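Lab notebook, page 48
Experiment: co-folding of the full assembly
Goal: obtain a model of how the components sit together before planning crosslinking
Operator: M.T.
Materials (sequences as entered):
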Amino acid sequence: MKDIIQIKNITFNYPDQPLLFDQLSIDVHEGEWTALIGQNGSGKSTLARLIDGLIVLKSGQIVVDGLIVNDDNIFDIRNKIGIVFQNPEDQFVGATVEDDVAFGLENRQMPREEMHKVVESSLKEVGMWEFRDRIPANLSGGQKQRVAIAGIVALSPKIIILDEATSMLDPRGRQEILDLVTKIKQENNLTVISITHDIDEAATADRVIVVNKGTIVEEDKPDNIFGDIRKLESIGLSAPFTSQLIMALEKRGIDSSSQYLNDKRLIAWIKQLVSNK
Amino acid sequence: MSNFLFGRYLPGNSWVHRMSPQSKLMLCFFFVIVIFFANNVWTYATLSLLLIVVVLMSGVSIGYFLKGIRPLIWLIIFTVLLQILFSSGGHVYWHFGPFSVSDLSLINGGFIFVRFLLIIMISTVLTLTTTPLAIADGVQTVLKPLKKFHFPVDTLALMLSIALRFVPTLMDEMETILNAQRSRGVDFGSGSLRHRIQAAVPLLVPLFTGAINHAENLSTAMEARGFTDSEHRSKYRVYKWQTKDTISWGVFLLVGILVLFLRNN
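Observation: model returned without errors.
Model output:
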């Protein structure tokens, strides 16, 4: 599989602070959903900003879809990447929903007729077309994140980065955003990187990378990673609810063969246990 | 407070609503300038008649206009009183020390009152029939000629529209901070002026910190969405000059000329 993002031996620190990354390397495979998880201050969000060229590396190299991240390529790279940030309020630039979706298109000097078509189709894609006249004050957090996603879809990028995009939403809003991104990813064959605290969000990924203190601790499929709760807890992350439940059952002598199970599979497994007895 | 800026716009589909914002803005200016040329009953009557026509065509009920005047009523009364008591000449009805009331001062007071009323009403028509966003766009169009002198018109317009967009956000935050500080025992409403100013500090500091955080995050988000500068952008919304605007300008210009004829020289 092709690596759409290659991070090679990067070093970075904020002014007057210790090194955040020391010789870090990560590859992101095209068409995959990669989750980056780790504690606060582990440098996850910084990584998103480095990939998009919003902040500058000390040393090393990042290659996005064949282009090296530097001053010359920066706008081509930003055309390939859309980022949904954490705070819904702070990425809403336009005065109304449709103006906000148009913002990125205006920056690229798209002609007006085309712009109106693209805004309409993008808002319909995320189910926000009926809300096009609304001002941000009259939208919920989840709706604002939908608009942010529409703004990204409008630019048809190859990569979407969710930078803790669901952390300020309620559980239902969170699930709706994840479902929406899953749908858009499939329809447009996108690569998704989700940077998150939320283990349940990470569990929807194809591959999980656990970052701690600027280095990769673990890199595997979610099933394998979340099976080993003790390891997760040793780096200060709480395991997903399902893993915690399995662990509690194991203590009572019920063996699950130590595998990570999502909600549905867990329910199926428990039903089976009950019927066997 | 939020009503002051945003509750003003009344959605509608009248002639005035559908005019382009830049021409409404300029007509408003033009009307105010013409008001300062009026100096007798005929000129004021002509302008009042024009205003009544404009108000009727805006399709907005008169109650909203009265609401627009209410906050300014004391300023109007004060100015009119000054005009009545201090202007000299004419037949004096009453005087006491430096104060006097004459037939001329009463007429002048009346004119000042009408002048205030006209200015407030015409600007109320503008804000009631135009969204803040459209006004920001109108300002951009009106100021366009200044580009020749390297005045950053587009940047100004973008700043204006982002500022308008963040007013409700900051209002909400102020409300939250206000309640948070109240729950800690800060009293905002009573005490001496000095005390009240002191009480505002724990309100303003978090509000400003929040605003600066918003600005920083917003600029990152704007950059990530491909923003470079405000010059090299296309525009999603465009307000075209329409026949309505030409007709309105024609009427206003005629009235302006009429006022120049009717005024006392």
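Interpretation: Confidence is low (pLDDT under 50) at residues 1-7 of chain B.
Next step: discuss with group before ordering constructs.
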